[in-house]
Amino acid sequence: MKVYDLMEMRKFIASAFLHGRWHFVHRDIYGNIVDEEWVDNIIPNEGIDYILNAAIHGDTQISAWYFAPFTNNYTPTSGDTYASPGYTEATTQYSESNRQEWVEGAASSQQITNSSAATITASTDVTIYGAGLVGGGTAPSTKGDTTGGGTLLASAALSSAKSLSNGETLDMTYTISGSSS
C-alpha cells in the first residue's frame, strides 16, 4: 500500500461513522406478531478494535457471528467484552441447541444485514431484555460461552422487554450501516 493510500484511508476513518440497529419480532405460537421493536445499539470498544484491526491492520477476520439474547435488565456499555459482557445470556430458556447465526449478505449502499431473521423458540417462559452479537474464539456458537476468547461486536437493550411463553419465538435482525460525515 502506498503512503498516499494509507493517508487517505486514515482520513476516511477519521470521518466515518458506524451505526447498528436491531429489529426484534416477538411471535406467538401461531406465528402472529405480538410485539416488534427497532433498537439502536452500542458497538463496544472491543467491537471497534476488532473492526479497525480486521479492516486496516490485517488481523484475521471473523467469518461467523452469532446472536446472544440476554435475560437480565442490563444496559450495554462501551467497556463490555465477550469475556465480561455485563449481561446474562439465555442458555436453557430457548430450544435451539446453539446460538443462532447472523447470516449476513454482502454490503450494499453502506450497510450489511441478515436478510432472514435468526429465530429462537422459548422452551420455557422467559423475558428477553436485549441481545449481543458475538463471534470468533474457540466456541462462538456455544450458548453462554465467555471463556473462548471471542469478540463482542455489538449489543443492545430493548426499550420494552419481550416476555415469551413456552413455544413463542423471537426473530432477530441486525444491520450495521456506515456513513462519512
Word description of this protein:
It is a single chain. This protein has 181 residues and is mainly beta. It has one domain. It contains two helices and nine strands, in the order αββαβββββββ. It has helices spanning 3-15, 45-57; strands at 16-27, 33-40, 65-70, 101-102, 111-113, 118-121, 126-135, 151-164, 169-180. Strands 1, 2, 5, 6 and 9 form a five-stranded antiparallel beta sheet that branches. A four-stranded antiparallel beta sheet has the order 4-3-7-8. Strand 1 and strand 2 (33-40) form a beta hairpin. The radius of gyration is 17 Å and the shape is globular.
| Alpha carbon gyration radius | 17 Å
Class per helix and strand makeup: mainly beta
Measured as a percent range, the helix fraction is 10-25%
* Alpha carbon gap, first and last residue: 25 Å
Q: Mean pLDDT score, rounded?
A: 91
DSSP summary: helix tally: 2
Order of helices and strands: HEEHEEEEEEE
The largest β sheet comes out as: 5 strands, antiparallel
The portion of residues forming beta strands comes to: 35-45%
How would you summarize this macromolecular structure in one to three sentences?
Helix content is 14%, strand content 39%. It has 181 residues and is mainly β. The strands form two sheets. Strands 1, 2, 5, 6 and 9 form a five-stranded antiparallel β-sheet that branches.
Describe how the helices and strands are arranged:
Elements: H1 3-15, E1 16-27, E2 33-40, H2 45-57, E3 65-70, E4 101-102, E5 111-113, E6 118-121, E7 126-135, E8 151-164, E9 169-180
Antiparallel strand pairs: 1-2, 1-9, 3-4, 3-7, 5-9, 6-9, 7-8
